[in-house]
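input
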Amino acid sequence: MPRNLVEYLDLLVGQKVDVRHIALTLDQIAKGYGEGEPLPPDPVKSTDPRAKKYLQELAAHGLEPGAWEMDALPPADLHDVIVDEIKSLIDEDLWKEVEGAEKEQKQAIAEIADQWRTPLPNIDFLLAEIHDLIQQENRSPACQTTE
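output
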C-alpha cells in the first residue's frame, strides 16, 4: 500500500487510520482458485523502478513473475477475507453490551411512540375540569368589571 495513501487518509479524517493489507496477498495469489494453481498473472511493467525488488519477492514465494488485480480474487473469497478481518477486530463482550443498550433504547422509543399515538385515557374528564376552572375564573370577582 502506498505510504502517501495512508498519510492522506490520516490527514483526511484528522487522526491515525489503521490501514491493513488483507486482500490479494501473495498467499492468496499462490492459493489461486483452490486447485493448486496460482491466480493467472498479468505482465510486470519492466519500466517500473520497483519491478526488480517485486520480482525478487515473488520468486522468494515461489511465484512466477506477474502482477494481479484485485478482481482476480474470487468474489466469495474476497467477501470472506473482509468479514473475517472485521470479526477479528470486534470485542465480543463490548459488542453484546452495546447491543443490549441499543435494544433497551429501542424499547423505550417504542413505548414513547405508543403513548404519543394513544390519546390520554381520561381526556374528556380533563377537558371538562379545565372548562370548569375557566368558568370559575370568569365568575370570580377579580374578573368582573364594574360599569
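quick obs: The chain is about 60% helix and 0% strand.
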